[in-house]
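As described in the Methods, two query proteins were run sequentially through the folding procedure within a single session, without resetting any intermediate state between them. The first query and its resulting structure tokens are shown here.
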Amino acid sequence: MIIKENIHQAKTHFSKLIEHALNGDEVIVAKAGKALVKIVPIEEPEERVPGGAMGQVRMDNDFNDPLDPNEVPGFGL
């Protein structure tokens, strides 16, 4: 559901509008009928777990060896 309120009504019913946004409604605040802002819930990012990609990435033993300038022209300036 889309809920559109003018600034004065939004100030008066702010708590109600927040509840609507949290329940998935689109809440728009307008001035003189022109949409200005949208109230949306904050989505918390997933917690990062160290080592979450373990076993998914493999690097050769020569990963840190210098590059051969003949293989990559202009790279080994």
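Immediately afterward, the second query was submitted; its sequence and tokens are:
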Amino acid sequence: MTILVADVGGTNARLALARDGTLDSKTIRRYRNREHAAFYDVVMLYLQEMQPDGIERCCVALAGPTTPTKGKLTNHYWEFEAARLNEASGAGQSLLINDLTALGYSLAGLDTTMARHVCGTTARGHGNGQSLVVGMGTGFNVCPVKALPSEGVACLEAEAGHAKLDADLRAWLYERIDPDAAQFSTVEECLAGPGMSRLYGAYSRTGAMEGHEIVAACIEDEVPQAQTFMRFFTRLTGLVCQQLTLQYMPLGGLYLAGSVGRGAMSCGYIEEFEGGLRSGEKFRDIVAEIPVYVIEDDCAPLIGCTEAAKAMGTV
């Protein structure tokens, strides 16, 4: 069986083929969205280049709200319909999923080169069969993943980024950036890329910087305020993740994803993250055992699309 898979963000679309249930990394191609009127044009261009024998199924992950048959990008005008994907690809079945849902489906296929262990137990797959993907990029969201009794997983949709910070966390924030803390009332306003930039300005009093600039300045030891801020930001990430672990109990693993998540875990302040994750007395021992990973391989959404497409015939 040949499956067409795609990971579509606001700027780029990456397409690949999966054969016999395995992603073929040699078939990955990237296209700039702005150079094409519609995603269906990209599909036809890709298939002209690759010349596969035939496409049986198609699964596309979108950076935006989706249903199984319709979707729309948050930061680009493209809209998607499963029926039109069938026409463009020749597939018998097409499925649309959110990009974070794709990461949820990818977990079973990630090896140690794709997901780096950060802290907690190193025994993967233990516990209650529940895992959680925490996406920290342009936006913030989570995907709870539950292993099914027979085989496969169920990946749930959420909008956790728009949840309000709890009272204790807001008080902690107010102590450090008052009086500017009022503008950071939701999780996304703190831990997504744009929020991270504004948070740096409020914390350092030196003006906003882009997230990648903050991380680079911290790692390269160029700006002292960047290092101080990243200690604070990594602790904040741990505190938010503590709340998420209590809400979802992902004893099978907590997986950080996205450019902001990878950046926060690359600055060398893991002890700050662990301190936030394990703070307080409630369930401290349980939280301390939860394995935490960083998804570092950009192929993960395509792997997830492959797994979701394989499951189409069983649901």
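The longest helix spans residues 224-248. We note this only descriptively and draw no conclusion about the first query from it.
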